[in-house]
Specification:
Layout (H helix, E strand, L loop, with lengths): L2 E4 L11 E5 L3 E5 L9 H6 L12 E3 L5 H4 L2 H6 L5 E3 L2 H27 L1
Parallel strand pairs: 3-4, 4-5
Antiparallel strand pairs: 1-2, 2-3
Length: 115
């Protein structure tokens, strides 16, 4: 029997993440988004998955916005080794977005440390 878990964007509009489990497909993640807004410096350090990333077979990315893709580096860092499916344009855009996000995070962190 298939199951679908809503793991992100619950009662808010960021952090999209859905886990579909089926006997035929295994564990399939749809999106792996970061939460945006608020205190990103503190919130990002607390991001955790409600599943073991090493058990995920496949990730499908609906689109490249950070609230749908921003935690892919953390997913991979925590042991995800499955395939990632997205359109070709997204695969070219993601590295640019991730690098930009790191720069913004470092800027915010420096500001927070000065306070």
């Amino acid at each position: 029997m298939a199951s679908l878990r809503f793991l992100g964007a619950a009662q808010e509009v960021t952090g999209s993440c859905y886990l579909l489990e089926t006997p035929d497909l295994g564990k399939v993640l749809l999106d792996c988004g970061m939460h945006q807004g608020g205190d990103a410096v503190h919130r990002l350090g607390k991001e955790a998955f409600a599943f073991d990333p090493t058990t995920i077979d496949t990730l499908f990315l609906s689109h490249a916005h950070l609230d749908h893709s921003g935690l892919i580096p953390l997913l991979v860092h925590n042991g995800f080794e499955g395939d990632i499916f997205c359109i070709n344009g997204y695969s070219k855009l993601l590295p640019v977005m991730f690098n930009d996000t790191v720069g913004l995070y470092e800027r915010d962190l420096k500001h927070e440390n000065r306070r």
